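Trying the structure run again after the queue cleared.
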Amino acid sequence: MHASSSSQVAVGKDVLLDGRLALFHKQERWLAVADLHFGYELSQRAAGNLFPLWGMQTIEKRLKELLRAYNPTRLIILGDLVHDCVAAREATHLVKRLSSYCNVLLIAGNHDHELNDVIDLVDSWTTKRFHFHHGHCVIDCPDRIQVIGHYHPAGTMADGAGLRLKLPAFVQENNRWLLPAFSPWSSGTDFTPDQQSRVWLCSPRRIFRLETN
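Done. Tokens:
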């Protein structure tokens, strides 16, 4: 286990991983996050479950902190903007507020299928080096690095004395990068990497490189 002394790590040419669960490209000026599941608490309440109404405010606050820190020209939300259509109105207002900072590009995720009538969504977006999509559909893209969400990757650290800590993970495979879920409700799914993968465990103050051999 290797720990960074800061909450930022260079993970590629001109690309920074921020421990606050975002990627930033220094030259192209895009900031990417995935799997907000905005309004998850509203969906749970609509189903009769008792949930506090703090998740949406937390997501917006964290996003605005990142936008102020990096001043990107484009915010890319890599699918699953919402958990379901219960929060469609709230998500529309969120996007409008975020648009005062920069252009907001919304990529369709499997939870977003009922938003097409109220929010503009695209299936994917491409730059010279990267192909952005949610990740729930298989796409053949050998000439670019795929940047996706969907899987909610996480990893676990242990101290050898019984203490275990699970953290959201950013995973780099050969030509595919998996972003951690931005949702505060997601605990993530433990990701089993191969020896060629690089796995970074993310926290707001420090990033840890998980050994894969």
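The CA atoms of residues 42 and 87 lie 7 Å apart. Worth checking whether this holds up in the mutant runs.
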